[in-house]
Amino acid sequence: MAQLRQEVDPGEAGLDAKALDRLDQHFAHYVDEGRLPGYLVAVARGGRVAHLTTHGRRDIAAGLPVEADTLWRIYSMTKPVTSVAALILMEEGRLSLDDPVARHLPAFADPQVYEGGSGSGIRTRPAAQPPLIRHLMTHTAGLTFAFYHNHPVDALYREAGLDSAVLPGSDLAGTVDAYARLPLQFEPGTEWNYSVATNVLGRVIEVVSGQPLDMFVTERVLGPLGMTDAGFCVTDAQAPRLSELYGETDAGGIEPIAGLPLRGRPRFLSGSGGLVASAYDVHRFMELLRRRGELDGVRLLADETVDLMTSNQLPGGADLRAFGSRPAHDEPGNDGVGFGLGVSVVIDPERTQAPSGPGTFGWSGVATTTFWVDPGRDLTVQFMTQVRPKSSLRLFPDLKRLVHEAVTD
Q1: What percent of the residues of the chain are helix, what percent strand, and what percent coil, each to the nearest 5?
Q2: How many CB atoms lie within 10 A of CB 85?
Q3: Which of 24, 77, 221, 289 could cross-link 365 (Cys pair, CB 3.0–4.6 Å)?
Q4: Whole-number mean pLDDT of the chain?
C-alpha cells in the first residue's frame, strides 16, 4: 500500500508556508464548527508534494482520524478516469470521437429530441444528427439527470426510475438501455448539460474492449499508474480506512448518510461516479495529466491526446455559464470555465470566481472532493472530505484563493 507523503519544504517549491498555514486554519474552522468531519489537502509543485495536511475525523462516532491513507468516495472525479480509459481505446484505433454512439450501442439508433410539452403530452422529433462519442465526453449529447427538476425530460427520467441515475436492480447495460429509451433534451452537440453521459461512455468501453468496465479501468489505467487503492469496491483489508459519508443538515451541521454500496463488487459499475481512491491514487492520476500522458516510464496517452482532453471543446468555444438557461448550470463559478473531454478547463481567468491560471483543468465530486492541475504554475491540488452538501457548503472558491495566495513564483 502506497501512501502520500510530503516530499519537499514549501519554500523550496515556491510556496509560502505561512499562507499554507492560513489555508489549514481556514478549513480547520469548518471542522471545529461541525460543518466538516475532517479533511485532507495536498499541494504539489513539479510533482513533489510540498504541503499535506490531515485534520479531523474520517468517522466521528468511532473517533477515527483522517489519515494520509484514508479512502474516499470520489464520485464524479471518476469521470476523468473513465475518459482516460476511452481515450486509450481511441489511440488504439478501436474507438473514435466522431463515432455515433449507436455504432457501439444500437439502442441509441434513431434518437428523438424534445420539442415541447410535458408529461404524457411531450412532443419529440427525430434528431438532426446522432449523438457522438465526443458528445458523451463533453456532456453535449442531450442527456440529463433526474434530480435537476427543471425540464420535462428530467421528469421522464424520474418516471423511468432513474432518480439516482441507476435503474433499480439493473447493471450498467440495462441502465444505459433505459437512458436510450428517453428523448434527448436538445440536439446533440449544441448545448452543455452535465448528465449521465459518462455512464454511457463506460458502457461503450465495455462493448469496445469486451471487458467489464471495472476490469478494463483497473488493467489499463489504475494498475499501470500504481493507483493501488483505487477501485469500484473496497476489500475487507481496506474497509477500516474508508471514510464515513455525511450529509449537510438544514441547520448547517452534518449527519451520517448512506453512500455507495462498496462492500463486494457492485452490480452497477458507474463510470460517472463509482470509484473509491486514496490521496496517493489521486496524486498519481493528476501526475499523469500534468506530465501529458506519461508517469514513471509508463505512457498511457500521447501528449497531443492529453492536450485535446484538457482544452475547451464546448460549442463555439463558450464557457459553461453560456448554457445557464438551466438553473443547475447558471452559477458564478461557471464564468470563464469551459469543458474538455471529461474535465473543466479555465479559458478566461479574469472572469473566474476564484484565482485560476489559464488552462487549469480538473473536476470535483458530490461529496466535496476536488482536484485541479495548473500547468502554468506546475501545480496540482487535491482536497478530500466526505460531505454531500445541500447548498451552503461552498468551499472550493476559498480553497483556490488560499492556494493562489501561497504561490510565490
Answers
A1: 35, 20, 45
A2: 25
A3: 77
A4: 95
d(CA 186, CA 114): 6
| Ramachandran region, residue 127 (left: φ > 0; alpha: ψ -120 to 50; beta: rest) | beta
Query: Residue 331: pLDDT band by 50, 70, 90 thresholds?
Result: low
pLDDT > 90 in the chain, percent: 90
Q: pLDDT for 41-57, tens place per residue?
A: 999 999 999 999 999 99
Residue 296 backbone phi and psi in degrees, to 5: 50, 40
- Considering only CA atoms, which of 338, 331, 335, 290 is closest in space to residue 313? 338
Alpha carbon distance 74, 292 (integer Å) = 22
What DSSP designation does 245 have?
Answer: P
Confidence class of residue 176 from pLDDT cuts 50, 70 and 90? very high
CA–CA distance from 200 to each of 237, 274, 378 (Å)?
31, 13, 33
| Residue listed under C-alpha cell 420539442 | 115
| Range 81-86 average pLDDT | 98
CA pair distance 168, 215, nearest whole angstrom: 23
The separation between CA 387 and the C-alpha centre of its own chain, rounded to angstroms, equals: 15
Grid coordinates representing 403?
492556494
Bridge partners, 374 (sequence order): 379
pLDDT tens digits, residue range 240-263? 999 999 999 999 899 999 987 788
The secondary structure element, H or E, covering residue 361 is strand 361-365
Q: Report residue 358 as a C-alpha cell.
A: 489559464
- The dihedrals phi and psi of 64, each to the nearest 5 degrees, come to -90, 130
Using CB atoms within 10 A of its CB, is residue 119 exposed (0-12), middle (13-18) or buried (19+)?
Answer: exposed
For residues 130 and 126, what is the distance between their CA atoms, to the nearest angstrom?
9
Beta-carbon contacts of residue 153 (< 8 Å; ≥ 6 apart): 114, 122, 144, 182, 183, 184, 185
Residue with cell 427543471: 150
Predicted TM-score (pTM) of this structure: 0.97
